[in-house]
Protein backbone atom coordinates (compact mmCIF):
# COMPACT_ATOMS: atom_id res chain seq x y z
CA UNK A 1 0.00 0.00 0.00
CA UNK A 2 1.15 3.51 -0.78
CA UNK A 3 1.60 5.90 2.09
CA UNK A 4 -0.67 8.96 2.08
CA UNK A 5 1.01 12.07 0.71
CA UNK A 6 1.81 14.58 3.45
CA UNK A 7 2.33 18.31 3.07
CA UNK A 8 4.27 20.94 4.96
CA UNK A 9 2.53 24.32 4.83
CA UNK A 10 5.71 26.33 5.33
CA UNK A 11 3.78 29.61 5.03
CA UNK A 12 0.10 29.60 5.94
CA UNK A 13 -2.24 32.58 5.78
CA UNK A 14 0.49 35.22 6.01
CA UNK A 15 -0.61 38.74 5.02
CA UNK A 16 1.18 42.06 5.51
CA UNK A 17 2.16 45.28 3.76
CA UNK A 18 5.60 46.90 3.48
CA UNK A 19 5.62 50.60 2.70
CA UNK A 20 8.19 52.63 0.80
CA UNK A 21 11.12 53.52 3.04
CA UNK A 22 10.06 51.03 5.73
CA UNK A 23 11.98 48.14 7.26
CA UNK A 24 9.58 45.34 8.16
CA UNK A 25 10.97 42.55 10.30
CA UNK A 26 10.08 38.86 10.44
CA UNK A 27 11.28 37.14 13.62
CA UNK A 28 10.91 33.61 14.87
CA UNK A 29 12.86 30.44 15.51
CA UNK A 30 14.44 28.31 12.80
CA UNK A 31 11.92 26.54 10.58
CA UNK A 32 9.01 28.92 11.21
CA UNK A 33 8.81 30.05 7.56
CA UNK A 34 10.68 33.37 7.59
CA UNK A 35 13.02 32.66 4.68
CA UNK A 36 10.28 30.94 2.67
CA UNK A 37 8.15 34.07 3.07
CA UNK A 38 11.00 36.26 1.83
CA UNK A 39 11.65 34.03 -1.17
CA UNK A 40 7.94 33.96 -1.99
CA UNK A 41 7.82 37.77 -2.04
CA UNK A 42 10.59 37.80 -4.65
CA UNK A 43 8.99 34.98 -6.64
CA UNK A 44 12.00 32.77 -6.08
CA UNK A 45 9.62 29.88 -5.41
CA UNK A 46 8.09 27.99 -8.32
CA UNK A 47 4.46 29.14 -8.71
CA UNK A 48 3.44 25.47 -8.91
CA UNK A 49 4.50 25.11 -5.26
CA UNK A 50 2.27 28.00 -4.16
CA UNK A 51 -1.13 26.68 -3.08
CA UNK A 52 -2.82 30.09 -3.10
CA UNK A 53 -2.54 33.78 -2.39
CA UNK A 54 -0.90 36.65 -4.20
CA UNK A 55 2.04 39.05 -3.95
CA UNK A 56 1.35 42.63 -5.07
CA UNK A 57 4.32 44.86 -5.91
CA UNK A 58 4.29 48.54 -6.89
CA UNK A 59 7.16 49.01 -9.40
CA UNK A 60 8.40 52.23 -10.95
CA UNK A 61 6.12 53.70 -13.67
CA UNK A 62 8.59 52.68 -16.38
CA UNK A 63 8.69 49.06 -15.20
CA UNK A 64 4.90 49.00 -14.80
CA UNK A 65 4.47 49.96 -18.45
CA UNK A 66 7.01 47.37 -19.55
CA UNK A 67 5.28 44.60 -17.59
CA UNK A 68 1.86 45.76 -18.82
CA UNK A 69 3.07 45.28 -22.38
CA UNK A 70 4.43 41.78 -21.68
CA UNK A 71 1.81 40.51 -19.19
CA UNK A 72 -1.29 42.75 -19.10
CA UNK A 73 -3.23 40.17 -17.06
CA UNK A 74 -0.86 40.74 -14.11
CA UNK A 75 -1.16 44.55 -13.95
CA UNK A 76 -3.68 46.69 -12.10
CA UNK A 77 -3.16 50.15 -13.57
CA UNK A 78 -5.62 51.80 -11.20
CA UNK A 79 -3.55 50.75 -8.16
CA UNK A 80 -0.24 50.77 -10.02
CA UNK A 81 0.63 47.24 -8.85
CA UNK A 82 1.71 43.93 -10.37
CA UNK A 83 0.60 40.50 -9.14
CA UNK A 84 3.95 38.70 -9.31
CA UNK A 85 2.42 35.22 -9.51
CA UNK A 86 0.42 36.14 -12.61
CA UNK A 87 3.56 37.21 -14.48
CA UNK A 88 5.00 34.50 -16.76
CA UNK A 89 8.70 33.74 -16.40
CA UNK A 90 9.61 35.46 -19.68
CA UNK A 91 8.14 38.75 -18.41
CA UNK A 92 9.84 38.73 -14.98
CA UNK A 93 13.14 40.26 -16.13
CA UNK A 94 12.06 43.94 -15.79
CA UNK A 95 10.80 43.22 -12.27
CA UNK A 96 14.03 41.50 -11.23
CA UNK A 97 15.77 44.88 -11.44
CA UNK A 98 13.60 46.17 -8.61
CA UNK A 99 13.46 43.04 -6.42
CA UNK A 100 16.75 42.05 -4.79
CA UNK A 101 18.00 39.89 -1.92
CA UNK A 102 21.01 39.81 0.41
CA UNK A 103 21.65 36.23 1.49
CA UNK A 104 22.65 35.08 4.94
CA UNK A 105 25.95 33.49 3.90
CA UNK A 106 28.51 35.98 2.52
CA UNK A 107 30.89 33.07 1.94
CA UNK A 108 28.61 31.11 -0.38
CA UNK A 109 26.73 33.88 -2.19
CA UNK A 110 29.71 35.21 -4.18
CA UNK A 111 31.39 33.35 -7.05
CA UNK A 112 34.92 32.51 -5.82
CA UNK A 113 36.27 32.47 -9.40
CA UNK A 114 35.26 36.03 -10.22
CA UNK A 115 36.84 39.30 -9.19
CA UNK A 116 34.71 41.75 -7.23
CA UNK A 117 34.44 44.11 -10.22
CA UNK A 118 33.14 41.28 -12.42
CA UNK A 119 30.66 40.11 -9.75
CA UNK A 120 29.18 43.60 -9.50
CA UNK A 121 29.26 44.21 -13.25
CA UNK A 122 27.34 41.01 -14.05
CA UNK A 123 23.83 42.36 -13.21
CA UNK A 124 24.51 45.38 -15.43
CA UNK A 125 25.46 43.12 -18.34
CA UNK A 126 22.38 40.90 -17.86
CA UNK A 127 20.05 43.91 -17.96
CA UNK A 128 21.93 45.82 -20.67
CA UNK A 129 22.86 48.77 -18.46
CA UNK A 130 25.91 50.81 -19.44
CA UNK A 131 27.11 51.14 -23.03
CA UNK A 132 30.82 50.61 -22.28
CA UNK A 133 32.85 48.70 -19.70
CA UNK A 134 34.30 51.99 -18.41
CA UNK A 135 30.79 53.27 -17.72
CA UNK A 136 29.85 50.06 -15.92
CA UNK A 137 33.02 50.12 -13.82
CA UNK A 138 32.17 53.65 -12.74
CA UNK A 139 28.83 52.30 -11.47
CA UNK A 140 30.69 49.48 -9.69
CA UNK A 141 33.01 51.97 -8.00
CA UNK A 142 30.05 54.09 -6.88
CA UNK A 143 28.31 51.04 -5.37
CA UNK A 144 31.47 50.11 -3.45
CA UNK A 145 31.67 53.65 -2.09
CA UNK A 146 28.04 53.47 -0.93
CA UNK A 147 28.82 50.35 1.15
CA UNK A 148 32.03 51.99 2.45
CA UNK A 149 34.57 49.81 0.66
CA UNK A 150 36.96 52.64 -0.14
CA UNK A 151 38.96 53.40 -2.11
CA UNK A 152 37.04 51.14 -4.53
CA UNK A 153 40.12 50.54 -6.70
CA UNK A 154 41.65 48.50 -3.86
CA UNK A 155 38.73 46.04 -3.89
CA UNK A 156 37.71 45.75 -7.54
CA UNK A 157 40.54 43.40 -8.53
CA UNK A 158 40.31 41.18 -5.45
CA UNK A 159 38.64 37.78 -5.21
CA UNK A 160 36.07 37.01 -2.48
CA UNK A 161 38.54 34.88 -0.47
CA UNK A 162 40.77 37.94 -0.13
CA UNK A 163 38.06 39.82 1.81
CA UNK A 164 36.88 39.52 5.40
CA UNK A 165 33.37 38.28 6.19
CA UNK A 166 32.10 41.81 6.75
CA UNK A 167 33.64 43.03 3.49
CA UNK A 168 32.06 40.13 1.60
CA UNK A 169 28.64 40.92 3.01
CA UNK A 170 29.09 44.56 1.96
CA UNK A 171 29.91 43.35 -1.55
CA UNK A 172 26.66 41.32 -1.45
CA UNK A 173 24.76 44.48 -0.51
CA UNK A 174 26.54 46.42 -3.28
CA UNK A 175 25.53 43.74 -5.80
CA UNK A 176 21.89 44.05 -4.72
CA UNK A 177 22.13 47.83 -5.21
CA UNK A 178 23.60 47.74 -8.71
CA UNK A 179 20.15 47.82 -10.35
CA UNK A 180 18.60 50.48 -8.06
CA UNK A 181 15.96 48.20 -6.51
CA UNK A 182 12.79 49.39 -4.81
CA UNK A 183 12.50 46.35 -2.52
CA UNK A 184 15.23 44.40 -0.71
CA UNK A 185 15.00 41.18 1.30
CA UNK A 186 17.81 40.92 3.87
CA UNK A 187 17.84 37.30 5.04
CA UNK A 188 19.72 37.25 8.36
CA UNK A 189 22.46 39.42 6.80
CA UNK A 190 24.60 39.68 9.95
CA UNK A 191 24.05 36.32 11.67
CA UNK A 192 27.36 34.91 10.35
CA UNK A 193 29.41 38.02 11.13
CA UNK A 194 31.39 38.97 14.22
CA UNK A 195 29.63 41.31 16.63
CA UNK A 196 32.21 44.03 15.94
CA UNK A 197 31.29 44.02 12.23
CA UNK A 198 27.51 43.73 12.56
CA UNK A 199 26.97 47.38 13.43
CA UNK A 200 28.74 48.54 10.25
CA UNK A 201 26.53 46.39 8.01
CA UNK A 202 23.36 47.44 9.86
CA UNK A 203 24.31 51.11 9.52
CA UNK A 204 24.60 50.63 5.75
CA UNK A 205 21.11 49.08 5.57
CA UNK A 206 19.74 51.93 7.68
CA UNK A 207 21.37 54.49 5.38
CA UNK A 208 19.84 52.84 2.31
CA UNK A 209 16.39 53.09 3.88
CA UNK A 210 16.76 56.75 4.77
CA UNK A 211 18.63 57.99 1.68
CA UNK A 212 17.02 55.91 -1.07
CA UNK A 213 13.58 55.19 0.48
CA UNK A 214 14.27 51.49 0.02
CA UNK A 215 11.57 49.13 1.32
CA UNK A 216 13.15 46.21 3.18
CA UNK A 217 12.08 42.87 4.61
CA UNK A 218 14.57 42.09 7.37
CA UNK A 219 14.60 38.44 8.48
CA UNK A 220 16.16 37.56 11.83
CA UNK A 221 15.80 35.37 14.90
CA UNK A 222 17.23 38.11 17.16
CA UNK A 223 14.56 40.33 18.73
CA UNK A 224 17.11 42.76 20.17
CA UNK A 225 18.52 43.27 16.69
CA UNK A 226 15.02 43.69 15.26
CA UNK A 227 14.31 46.54 17.65
CA UNK A 228 17.45 48.37 16.51
CA UNK A 229 16.80 47.94 12.78
CA UNK A 230 13.07 47.69 12.14
CA UNK A 231 10.04 49.96 12.06
CA UNK A 232 7.51 47.14 12.45
CA UNK A 233 7.92 43.56 13.65
CA UNK A 234 5.94 40.43 12.83
CA UNK A 235 6.45 37.29 14.92
CA UNK A 236 6.08 33.97 13.08
CA UNK A 237 5.37 30.54 14.50
CA UNK A 238 4.97 27.42 12.36
CA UNK A 239 4.17 29.33 9.19
CA UNK A 240 1.75 31.90 10.62
CA UNK A 241 2.16 35.46 11.84
CA UNK A 242 0.93 35.47 15.43
CA UNK A 243 1.72 39.07 16.43
CA UNK A 244 2.45 42.28 14.56
CA UNK A 245 3.12 45.85 15.64
CA UNK A 246 5.69 48.59 15.87
CA UNK A 247 9.09 47.57 17.25
CA UNK A 248 8.34 49.29 20.56
CA UNK A 249 4.86 47.74 20.84
CA UNK A 250 6.01 44.17 20.24
CA UNK A 251 9.07 44.28 22.51
CA UNK A 252 7.86 46.59 25.29
CA UNK A 253 4.32 45.17 25.42
CA UNK A 254 4.29 41.64 23.96
CA UNK A 255 0.81 40.12 23.84
CA UNK A 256 1.13 36.59 22.48
CA UNK A 257 2.52 33.99 24.93
CA UNK A 258 5.15 33.00 22.35
CA UNK A 259 6.30 36.60 21.90
CA UNK A 260 6.51 36.95 25.69
CA UNK A 261 8.79 33.90 25.77
CA UNK A 262 11.01 35.34 23.02
CA UNK A 263 11.32 38.68 24.84
CA UNK A 264 12.06 36.92 28.14
CA UNK A 265 14.88 35.01 26.44
CA UNK A 266 16.74 38.20 25.42
CA UNK A 267 19.95 38.33 27.52
CA UNK A 268 20.30 41.28 29.86
CA UNK A 269 23.77 42.90 30.06
CA UNK A 270 24.11 42.40 33.82
CA UNK A 271 27.00 40.26 35.20
CA UNK A 272 24.93 39.27 38.23
CA UNK A 273 22.55 37.36 35.94
CA UNK A 274 25.13 34.58 35.78
CA UNK A 275 24.02 33.61 39.27
CA UNK A 276 20.30 33.63 38.47
CA UNK A 277 18.06 30.99 36.97
CA UNK A 278 15.24 32.32 34.78
CA UNK A 279 12.14 30.32 33.94
CA UNK A 280 10.92 31.10 30.43
CA UNK A 281 7.13 31.12 29.89
CA UNK A 282 7.19 28.27 27.37
CA UNK A 283 7.29 24.48 27.54
CA UNK A 284 8.12 21.48 25.37
CA UNK A 285 9.56 21.37 21.87
CA UNK A 286 8.35 22.87 18.60
CA UNK A 287 5.51 20.91 17.02
CA UNK A 288 5.89 19.03 13.73
CA UNK A 289 5.01 21.22 10.75
CA UNK A 290 3.43 18.15 9.10
CA UNK A 291 1.20 17.05 11.97
CA UNK A 292 -0.09 20.36 13.30
CA UNK A 293 -2.38 20.23 16.34
CA UNK A 294 -6.04 21.05 15.95
CA UNK A 295 -6.93 24.57 17.02
CA UNK A 296 -4.10 26.87 18.07
CA UNK A 297 -0.80 25.53 16.79
CA UNK A 298 1.07 26.98 19.79
CA UNK A 299 -1.22 25.26 22.31
CA UNK A 300 1.11 22.30 23.17
CA UNK A 301 3.80 24.76 24.33
CA UNK A 302 1.59 27.47 25.81
CA UNK A 303 1.85 28.20 29.53
CA UNK A 304 -1.14 30.58 29.31
CA UNK A 305 -3.25 27.63 28.08
CA UNK A 306 -2.55 25.82 31.36
CA UNK A 307 -3.33 28.92 33.43
CA UNK A 308 -6.59 30.01 31.71
CA UNK A 309 -9.21 27.26 31.79
CA UNK A 310 -11.90 29.48 30.23
CA UNK A 311 -10.17 29.74 26.84
CA UNK A 312 -9.13 26.09 26.52
CA UNK A 313 -12.18 24.91 24.51
CA UNK A 314 -11.51 27.53 21.81
CA UNK A 315 -7.75 26.87 21.86
CA UNK A 316 -8.46 23.15 21.38
CA UNK A 317 -10.86 23.53 18.48
CA UNK A 318 -10.28 26.71 16.45
CA UNK A 319 -7.28 28.54 15.00
CA UNK A 320 -7.27 32.12 16.37
CA UNK A 321 -7.36 34.98 13.86
CA UNK A 322 -5.53 38.29 14.07
CA UNK A 323 -7.34 41.00 16.05
CA UNK A 324 -6.25 44.57 16.71
CA UNK A 325 -5.74 45.15 20.43
CA UNK A 326 -4.45 48.71 20.09
CA UNK A 327 -3.81 50.89 17.02
CA UNK A 328 -1.28 49.08 14.84
CA UNK A 329 -0.80 46.20 17.29
CA UNK A 330 -2.42 42.89 16.28
CA UNK A 331 -2.29 39.43 17.80
CA UNK A 332 -3.69 35.96 17.04
CA UNK A 333 -4.58 34.58 20.47
CA UNK A 334 -7.86 33.61 22.15
CA UNK A 335 -6.84 35.56 25.25
CA UNK A 336 -7.62 38.75 23.30
CA UNK A 337 -10.44 37.64 20.99
Automatic annotation (TrEMBL):
Domain ABC transporter residues, every copy: 1-263
CDD domains: ABC_NikE_OppD_transporters
Keyword vocabulary terms for this entry: ATP-binding, Nucleotide-binding, Transport
InterPro entries, A to Z: AAA+_ATPase, ABC_transp_ATP-bind, ABC_transporter-like_ATP-bd, ABC_transporter-like_CS, Oligopep_ABC_C, P-loop_NTPase
Entry-linked Gene3D superfamilies: P-loop containing nucleotide triphosphate hydrolases (3.40.50.300)
PROSITE patterns, A to Z: ABC_TRANSPORTER_1, ABC_TRANSPORTER_2
Single Gene Ontology BP annotation: transmembrane transport
Any one GO molecular-function label of the UniProt entry: ATP hydrolysis activity
NCBIfam families (UniProt xref): oligo_HPY (TIGR01727)
PANTHER family: ABC TRANSPORTER, ATP-BINDING PROTEIN, TRANSPORT ATP-BINDING PROTEIN
Protein's recorded name: Peptide ABC transporter ATP-binding protein
